[in-house]
Amino acid sequence: MVAELIMEASNILRKRVNDDTSIPHSGNMSEASAQSSNQAYFRSQEYYIHHESFKLFVGSWNVGGVRPPDNLNLDKLLNTEDTMADIYVLGFQEIVPLNAGNILATENSDVSVKWNSLIKAALNKRTPAEDTLQKTEIGESQRIYPLRTQSSTKSNATDYKCIISKQMVGIYITIWARTELHQYINNLGVSCVGCGILGRLGNKGSVSVRFCLHETSFCFVCSHLASGGKEGDERHRNADAAHILARTLFLPEPLRHLPRKILDHDRVIWLGDLNYRIHLPEDTTRSLVKNKEWSLLLENDQLIAEMNKGRAFEEWHEELIEFAPTYKYDQNSDDYYGSGQKIKVKRMRAPAWCDRIIWFGKGLKQIQYNRVESRLSDHRPVYARFTAYVEVSKLPGMQSSALSS
After folding, report:
1. CA-based torsion, 80, 384, 174, 333: positive or negative
2. Alpha-carbon Rg of the chain, whole angstroms?
3. Are 59 and 383 in contact (CB under 8 A)?
């Protein structure tokens, strides 16, 4: 690939410069002139390493085990009426019901193929019937789609292809990129961590995906953390997050010093049903939600409190929430669960911002954070838009790969 050749050339050039500075020069060239020549050579090499910006869309949705209907329109979820992004990252939780049979089987090819079909239709404005995804790809432990090269068939700038997808029980992540970017994407990998039953099964946990865009590494963590609305249940969620950070490990790449842990990557985004609740009496929470008192509710949000106290996601960032809690709704309704009940239901679920998108480190600028109105499940989807800054090695005469910066 072009990006790999550039990276290798950069390493060779740097090595030559370093070797030259440590080996005595012979001939008529003085030591001072040799050093000056080396410095000028190094500066000319660095001149072609610069930053480009790319538009990144990240969405998360707990679909409550509901299979998507054939006519499900994902235009609002993907915000396709707005400016199209360069890369789309979609994370789902509970794409299958979390029953014993599904928990013991890590993948369900029919459901994941269906979601990818609908995503492809929305991004490329084609009908799902035109999809011909091969189910043989779905059964692989790590599913990486072939990347299109410059010699491939021409397509317009809105043509997107899936670069990688992975499912663990109900957790599913799928990443799509403009076709023109595929030649600059490499080193794809996945790592799954189960935190559910017995602390290992995949009814809870994470699926993490990493890749490099040019010389910048990205890691996306799609997770479903421990549930529960009782006091102290947030500690279980904190423990799940800590286990995911500790146990996520990407396979090494031969001859490449690539990051293997989540926080070692250049750009890191965590999305999913984190399940943190609002630490207030249920009646108080419902009253504040009814009056849209978001700031008072957020003062008692468990995730924000745990982050501020350094007990979970220390030094991570989240944009200000200015939308209603995303959980829990009555099925096929805009009413929160239990709000229309005259008789108190057996297991109450107070509204909460369970579904979140947070990020770590530098090089990311969040420009939007919102929810989407869909009655498919008892959760509302959330999405975030970012500008991602990427380090690019550029040889003389090469055209920029930034499509929408």
Report:
1. negative
2. 24
3. yes
Which residues make Cβ contacts (< 8 Å) with residue 367, sequence separation at least 6?
A: 385, 386, 387
Instruction: With CA atoms as reference, report the closest residue to 318 among 280, 390, 269, 277.
Output: 269
Record the pTM: 0.81
Q: Chain-centre distance of CA 225, in angstroms?
A: 16
Chain-centre distance of CA 213, in angstroms? 14
Tokens, residue 332: 């096929």
User: Which neighbouring-strand residues pair with 177?
Assistant: 87, 161
Q: How many CA atoms lie within 13 A of 63 on its CB side?
A: 25
Q: Is the peptide bond before 230 cis (omega within 30 degrees of 0)?
A: no
Question: pLDDT tens digit string along 245-268?
Answer: 999 999 998 888 899 999 999 999
At residue 81, the pLDDT reads: 84
Do strands 143-144 and 160-168 pair parallel, antiparallel, or not at all (unpaired)? antiparallel
Residue 184 phi/psi, 5-degree rounding, is -100, 0
Distance of CA 191 to the CA centre of its chain: 13
Distance CA 83, CA 243 (A): 37
Reported as a single tens digit per residue, the pLDDT across 326-370 is 999 998 999 999 876 554 555 678 999 999 999 999 999 999 999
Tell me: pLDDT of 25 over 50.
no
Question: Letter for the amino acid at 107?
Answer: E
Mean pLDDT over residues 82-95, rounded?
95
Residue 15: exposed, middle, or buried by beta-carbon count in 10 A (0-12, 13-18, 19+)?
exposed
CB atoms under 10 Å from CB of 189, counted, come to: 21
pLDDT of residue 393: 87
* pLDDT tens, residue by residue, 186-241: 999 999 999 999 999 999 999 999 999 999 999 999 999 999 999 999 999 999 99
How is residue 359 written in tokens? 């990020």
Q: List Cα–Cα distances, 13 to 1, 31, 62, in angstroms.
A: 18, 20, 48
Q: What is the 3-state secondary structure (H, E, C) of 285-336?
A: HHHHHHCCCHHHHHCCEHHHHHHHCCCCCCCEECCCCCCCCCECECCCCCCE
